[in-house]
Amino acid sequence: MGKRIGIIVCVLLLCLGQSAQAGDKRMSKYSAWEVYGQDEQLEIKETPDVIQRMLDTAYDEYTRVGGKRLKRANTYTRWYGVGGVAWCSIFIAWCSAKQDITLYLLKDISPKPDEEIFNFKVRFIPPLFNAFESVGRISAVPRPGYTVIYATRAGLWEMHVGIVYSAQLQADGRYLIETIEGNQGNTIRHYLFLYDPHAPFQQGNMSFLESLPEGADEQLIITPRNTSWCVKGFGATWK
User: Fold this and answer.
1) Fewer CB in a 10 Å sphere around the end CB: N or C, the chain?
2) Rounded distance, CA 41 to CA 24, Å?
3) pTM of the model
C-alpha cells in the first residue's frame, strides 16, 4: 500500500512539474514588462540608506576577495549553516544581514507593506523567485539593491541570482545595469550589461558592451556569462 501511494505521489509531482514547465514555455514569448511591469514607473528612485549600505558591503566583499577562487564551503555558506553548496543567493542574504535588513524564510511569506525593506533567506533559486512573486515583489524594472533573477530563455527555469549594484535608464528604454554576483567561477564578480524589459524572454533581453565605459572599474566584466540565459525579473527588496 505504501509503495502504491509513493508511486501516485511521484506521478502527481511529475505532472505538476510538466504543467509548470509548459506554462513557463508559453510565457517565454512575452517580455518582462508585459508580465511584471505594466504598472511600474520606469525611472530609478532614490536608494534607501540601508540598501546603499548593503551595496557597500557587497562591493567591499568583491574587492576583498579580489577574484580569488573560494572554496564551496566558505564564509557565506558557514553563516547560512551549510557546507559546500551553490551560494549565489546565500551571498545576497549575508550582505543583507550585515546591515540588519529583515530576512524572511519561506514559512514567513505573507503580504508586505510597500514601505517595508526586506530580503529572503532562501538557498534555492526557484523558491526564492516564488517567494518574491507571492508577495507581489517581482519587478521588470531594476533598482539598486534589487535581486536580479536569471533564467533559461527557453523554459524560464530560474538558475542564478545577483545584486543590482546600479541601474541607469537609457534613452532607448533599456537599462545599463551593474551587478555584483557571488558563486560565479567560485568567486565574486562584477558585471555590466544592457537589459531590455521589452524584449521577449526567448529572444534574450541582455546585450553586452563592446568596451568598458570611460573611467569604469577595469575589473568589470562585459562579456556574456551565459548566452542561453535571460533576466526573468527582479526581486524588489524595497519600493
Assistant:
1) N
2) 25
3) 0.88
